[in-house]
């Protein structure tokens, strides 16, 4: 196998789009919490810690999921043979090391968040994912925590708490839809995910309810004056996209979870645009 094919396989293990997006969320948390150019060093360290941690968590997840993925995701690097399980394990450990080294440059609260998150990432697949709803809540909390982590890097851990809650709620809905999508392989492995325990439809109804709460709550940054119309101009289409995704999830969970992800990324852009517009004193 060529070096390029193997390198691509290792990069794929990190799910680079998610890892970079998580770093962007950390950056967003830092600037929304009031970070300035003087905080550049700690913000870069926090972004690196998040990118390394997310890549490590994705890689270790594929390592532990290698048997399920032969059913659910045969195209992924380990089941398709691009990366061996052992190489994936050591690659993930190296990435976890990078996250620890980066986090050591941060204030104590940020370091504490990193320690909790890294522990949860290692424990998730083997111990938490198979517990009905617990794994979904952990991934949602990890995703939302990126905003708190960015704030903590500049000494304001709760500076972007509203955005953290919005991200966690939307991620919780998407995780439930993904479990409906993966139900075949999860059943084979004896996992007790929410759709397996309570049924697909009740799970999706709950996920839709969670997203409706998140969509309603997404008005808060506008109503409390933190963000202006520039934010609304992006978050409203993001909300529509995510709501469309949950409605779609009853028929086509694969398309639905992708639509939810697109809506969530657009919502993340709304947070950044909202903050930049507020900083620029743009009244729109
Ligand atoms: C209502 C409202 C305004 C919600 C805000 C939604 C928001 C900003 C969510 C953040 C989504 C985002 C950009 C997450 C970063 C990437 C990440 C860490 C995702 C965690 O994904 C775990 C997932 O199970 C991975 O699966 P896949 O994406 O299929 O590889
Ligand atoms: C802020 C710091 C230091 C860390 C945050 C780290 C973040 C953002 C984690 C987000 C969630 C994440 C990347 C979880 C990794 C595990 C994972 C891929 C969960 C979903 O896996 P499965 O439930 O197996 O579903 P798929 O493998 O089919 O996607
Ligand atoms: Mg997996």
From TrEMBL:
Q: Where are the transmembrane segments?
A: 20-37, 43-64, 90-116, 136-169, 204-223, 229-250, 262-282
The organism is: Haloferax elongans ATCC BAA-1513
Q: What does this protein do?
A: Prenyltransferase that catalyzes the transfer of the geranylgeranyl moiety of geranylgeranyl diphosphate (GGPP) to the C2 hydroxyl of (S)-3-O-geranylgeranylglyceryl phosphate (GGGP). This reaction is the second ether-bond-formation step in the biosynthesis of archaeal membrane lipids.
Predominant place of localization: membrane
Q: Which domain of life is it from?
A: Archaea
Protein name, per record:
Digeranylgeranylglyceryl phosphate synthase
According to UniProt, this protein's pathway is:
Membrane lipid metabolism; glycerophospholipid metabolism
* One MF term in the entry's GO annotations: magnesium ion binding
Q: Which gene holds the coding sequence for this protein?
A: ubiA
Family according to the record: Belongs to the UbiA prenyltransferase family. DGGGP synthase subfamily.
Q: Which NCBIfam families match?
A: PRK12882.1 (NF009521)
